[in-house]
Amino acid sequence: MLIDGEKEFQNEMKVIGRTHHRNLVRLLGYCHDGPKKLLVYEYMVNGSLADNLFDPQNPPRWDERIRIALEIARGILYLHEECETQIIHCDIKPQNILIDEYMSAKISDFGLAKLLKADQTNTNTGIRGTRGYVAPEWH
């Protein structure tokens, strides 16, 4: 019999595994062996947005930055309003935005995500995310 935390993990993996959008990194599979958990995502050849933004040799041009911001916004819109189970990511930051072979941005790392029930219209969460990237309204 699964304890609540393990059951919740498996339910979250099923939801995230069914969540597909061009601006989300796809979960390919996972391993759940007692306390050992492993998530397998598609490979993003161009690393993270942080790697790209802070590359002194080849930083993205402003038009590329705007396109990336729009792709991130499309991914967040999908998570919040369009997918079957709405998801609040809780940790959007440059390290969690990965760049594919076509230089398209994809949201990754749903480790702090909060799933909303089908009839749920609002939610309360404690402060979540990485210090320095927490939304200003939390302060």
TrEMBL record:
<keyword id="KW-0732">Signal</keyword>
<dbReference type="GO" id="GO:0004674">
    <property type="term" value="F:protein serine/threonine kinase activity"/>
</dbReference>
<feature type="domain" description="Protein kinase">
    <location>
        <begin position="1"/>
        <end position="139"/>
    </location>
</feature>
<keyword id="KW-0723">Serine/threonine-protein kinase</keyword>
<dbReference type="InterPro" id="IPR008271">
    <property type="entry name" value="Ser/Thr_kinase_AS"/>
</dbReference>
<keyword id="KW-0808">Transferase</keyword>
<keyword id="KW-0067">ATP-binding</keyword>
<dbReference type="GO" id="GO:0005524">
    <property type="term" value="F:ATP binding"/>
</dbReference>
<dbReference type="InterPro" id="IPR011009">
    <property type="entry name" value="Kinase-like_dom_sf"/>
</dbReference>
<keyword id="KW-0547">Nucleotide-binding</keyword>
<keyword id="KW-0418">Kinase</keyword>
<dbReference type="InterPro" id="IPR000719">
    <property type="entry name" value="Prot_kinase_dom"/>
</dbReference>
<protein>
    <recommendedName>
        <fullName>non-specific serine/threonine protein kinase</fullName>
        <ecNumber>2.7.11.1</ecNumber>
    </recommendedName>
</protein>
<dbReference type="InterPro" id="IPR051343">
    <property type="entry name" value="G-type_lectin_kinases/EP1-like"/>
</dbReference>
<dbReference type="Pfam" id="PF00069">
    <property type="entry name" value="Pkinase"/>
</dbReference>
